[in-house]
Design goal:
The protein is an all-alpha fold. It has one domain. 78% of the residues lie in helices and 0% in strands. It contains 15 helices and no strands. Helix 2 packs across helix 5 and helix 9 runs antiparallel to helix 10. It is globular and about 60 Å long. It starts with a helix and ends with a helix. One of its GO terms (cellular component) is plasma membrane. It is a multi-pass membrane protein. InterPro entries: Chr_Tranpt_l_chain (IPR014047), Chromate_transpt (IPR003370). This is Chromate efflux transporter. Belongs to the chromate ion transporter (CHR) (TC 2.A.51) family.
Length: 391
């Protein structure tokens, strides 16, 4: 693999890691803007297929999409560099925060509020673009809207997975005669053998670690087991992992309740994936080594799953029958993003008419004036500070 390509993957993902605020769905908006619109590394259809797969399997969806794009662009090393670039800024920030002290609360700062409004603009832009490509007719628009409605009124851990399956079945029936004559190859450079080893490793660790925890009584081993299980069993992204982590570390006395809440506030304030909350908890529990162990443990399942499923997914998605199902699934992805746009992104960020005005202005800069996302982030942070100081 060309060194220039790998360096580009690292630099682009690192910039996203420093500027992607707002949680998992906002990250998908930033990715769409950078990788699809700006760089054309993949098209809307391939991106939606990748998002659908990440929503269907356990783990942090945005991180898995980033790993998948890195894999498509630069092979296994590209996947690793894409993950490191996107994750490293928040890991470092949260480990430093845990080391210094948890006595100050920055979650209510004005610039944090401004960054939440940036996420509103970015996700709205992504939904608009993906909706035009993936739900262009009445049938697929209806699938997207029905998915949106059901997710807003029926909120369970498995709602997304169930609705993706139902949308796939609807697409299978409605579009069974539609065949894509030019299916796009995702460019996955991994063998089925390697993918199979990843899947076997994922399930083996899930079964073996709890049993081995009784043999190896090290605190670090126990930490690895707890965070691996949390990363392996969570559907629906970063917010869902928080109560699971709380049950693992607070009752056991690994991290105190106040420290847990302080770290949660700090996690909301940094860019990148919410799963890096594990970096903070591990550092509080066992110093920087604990932070690194917890980080590796919680992201390892996501890595093994996306590397294990993508090579098979790349072939399955070219099947004419599956292509019809994917038309329904991709429309449902638009609905899923729209539902998450309302809650938690819009409801948490827009609390006044002034907030909405700033979000609308940021949306206009992004969509019509084509201002780069990183600059919109800076403008949003400044705008949030002004609102906090004077209004």
């Amino acid at each position: 693999m060309h060194l220039k390509t790998l360096l580009e993957i690292l630099l682009v993902s690192t910039r996203l890691g420093f500027t992607s605020f707002g949680g998992p769905v906002a990250h998908l908006g930033y990715f769409h803007n950078e990788y699809v619109k700006r760089r054309n590394w993949l098209d809307d259809k391939a991106y939606a297929d990748l998002v659908a797969l990440a929503q269907f399997i356990p783990g942090p969806a945005s991180s898995q999409v980033g790993i998948g794009i890195g894999l498509m662009r630069g092979g296994l090393m590209g996947a690793i560099l894409s993950f490191i670039g996107f994750t490293f800024p928040s890991v470092l920030a949260l480990m430093i925060f845990a080391t210094l002290m948890q006595s100050f609360d920055i979650s209510q700062a004005g610039w944090i509020h401004g960054l939440k409004l940036v996420a509103v603009a970015v996700v709205a832009h992504a939904i608009l673009g993906m909706g035009q490509k993936l739900a262009p007719d009445r049938t697929r628009a209806s699938i997207a809207i029905i998915t949106l409605i059901l997710l807003l009124v029926w909120q369970t851990v498995y709602s997304q997975v169930i609705l993706i399956v139902l949308a796939g079945l609807a697409g299978l029936i409605i579009y069974r005669g539609n065949k894509d004559e030019n299916p796009v190859d995702l460019g996955i450079r991994l063998s089925y053998r390697f993918a199979s080893i990843c899947l076997v490793t994922f399930f083996s660790l899930l079964v073996a670690l709890p049993a081995l925890r009784n043999v190896f009584t090290s605190d670090l081993f126990a930490l690895f087991d707890s965070f691996y299980r949390a990363g392996a069993l969570v559907f629906g992204g970063g917010h869902v992992v928080l109560p699971l982590l709380e049950r693992e570390v607070v009752p056991a006395g690994i991290v105190g309740a106040e420290d847990f809440l302080a770290g949660y506030g700090a996690t909301q304030a940094v860019p990148g994936p919410l799963f890096t909350f594990a970096s903070y908890l591990g550092t509080v529990a066992n110093g920087w080594i604990g932070g690194l162990v917890a980080t590796i443990a919680i992201f390892l399942p996501a890595f093994l799953l996306i590397l294990g499923t993508l090579p098979f997914w790349n072939v399955i998605r070219k099947n004419p029958t599956i292509q019809g199902a994917l038309l329904g699934v991709n429309a449902a992805v638009v609905g899923i993003l729209a539902a998450a746009f309302y809650n938690p992104i819009f409801t948490n960020a827009v609390t006044s008419s002034v907030d909405f005005a700033l979000a609308a202005g940021l949306f206009g800069l992004l969509v019509f004036w084509k201002v780069p996302a990183w600059m919109v982030v800076l403008i949003g942070a400044a705008g949030g500070t002004v609102i906090f100081m004077f209004l």
